[in-house]
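Quick review question:
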């Protein structure tokens, strides 16, 4: 080999400096991703081109002292993909998560994104991806709200105000210009009160800290759930008002009736079918092997209680192949599980910004080996 091969390294601080937290731009980029998704100009893992990623399933117990065991939100995943359009990039998101990280002063998730040339496979960039991932995750409910929030929505509720919950709320406020009231609900009431003060100063609207999930949800036009941990917040049928939009970047405990009586929107239906294919030999149904609301939805489809033909893909809406909200009365539940093509799009945007602004460090992968 007689060519130098360099790539750009971006630390977390570099990524932030290059715009990883620019939620307004991120929403626009994610809308573009869903347009490409609807057109079919993308690839994800597996022969079906729609696999979310490969996950290590940790055992409940092991005879090996150094082997990790199953724990709350503990996982390692490799999420790969290709995104076309102006991005034309391959890459991977490497996802490490452990709720016990907080005891060590670390975030629950520690993330890395790699961008590659789709023709040669050469790395273009390796970057820390916590801020990147928070922004792209937060932007997705906002893209959903663009197409499915009730006209002139006045109230938005945030169930869970961690890093992701705050990103979601900031993104929703960016697209919902008619909001007059924000409601917060979190197990850490003191943190919610502090955050409420920040929001009042930033948005100049009424901000209330709800004493319960019910108080946060009842009468709200848009409800976002972004909690972590093993217990999902319960939302009763009657709490969700006519015309409400429920966005679920995390799971919620809701009834079959609410699911069947609402319009179901997903980020990528083919991804859930890929889950079904991957778990076809698993015992106990999809809900036992695919966690949270995604497994619940798949069980309802599998049992014939919801027709897959009645589920709307956000990509089809963004690409103009399907309608958004039909009227101000329908309840809409937007279920999302994240896709590597979202990380690639936002990572590529950050990469291009960094190149233009001289941010990051060029590292040599190899030089002249002759």
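Suggested answer, residue by residue:
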């Amino acid at each position: 080999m007689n060519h130098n091969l360099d790539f750009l390294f971006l630390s977390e601080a570099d990524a932030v400096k290059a715009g990883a937290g620019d939620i307004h731009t991120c929403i626009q980029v994610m809308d573009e991703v869903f347009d490409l998704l609807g057109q079919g100009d993308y690839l994800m893992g597996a022969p079906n081109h729609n696999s979310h990623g490969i996950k290590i399933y940790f055992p409940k117990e092991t005879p090996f002292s150094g082997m990790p065991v199953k724990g709350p939100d503990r996982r390692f995943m490799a999420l790969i993909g290709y995104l076309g359009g102006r991005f034309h990039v391959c890459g991977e998101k490497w996802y490490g998560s452990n709720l016990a990280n907080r005891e060590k002063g670390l975030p629950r998730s520690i993330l890395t994104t790699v961008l590659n040339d789709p023709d040669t496979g050469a790395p273009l960039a390796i970057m820390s991806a916590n801020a990147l991932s928070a922004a792209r995750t937060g932007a997705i409910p906002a893209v959903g709200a663009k197409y499915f929030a009730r006209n002139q929505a006045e109230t938005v509720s945030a169930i869970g105000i961690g890093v992701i919950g705050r990103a979601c709320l900031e993104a929703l406020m960016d697209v919902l210009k008619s909001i007059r009231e924000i409601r917060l609900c979190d197990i850490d009431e003191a943190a919610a009160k502090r955050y409420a003060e920040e929001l009042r100063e930033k948005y100049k609207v009424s901000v209330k800290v709800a004493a319960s999930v019910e108080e946060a949800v009842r009468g709200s036009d848009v409800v976002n759930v972004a909690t972590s941990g093993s217990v999902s917040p319960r939302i009763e049928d009657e709490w969700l008002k006519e015309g409400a939009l429920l966005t679920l970047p995390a799971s919620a405990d809701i009834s079959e009736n609410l699911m069947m009586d609402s319009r179901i929107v997903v980020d990528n239906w083919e991804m859930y079918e890929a889950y079904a294919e991957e778990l076809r030999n698993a015992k106990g149904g999809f809900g036992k092997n695919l966690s949270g609301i995604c497994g619940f939805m798949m069980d309802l489809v599998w049992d014939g209680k919801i027709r897959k033909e009645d589920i709307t893909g956000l990509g089809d809406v963004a690409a103009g192949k399907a309608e958004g909200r039909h009227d101000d009365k329908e309840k809409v539940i937007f279920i999302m599980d994240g896709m590597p093509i979202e990380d690639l799009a936002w990572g590529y945007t950050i990469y291009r910004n960094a190149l233009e602004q001289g941010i990051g460090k060029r590292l040599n992968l190899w030089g002249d080996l002759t």
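Why it works: The longest helix spans residues 130-148. Residues 57 and 100 are 17 Å apart (CA to CA).
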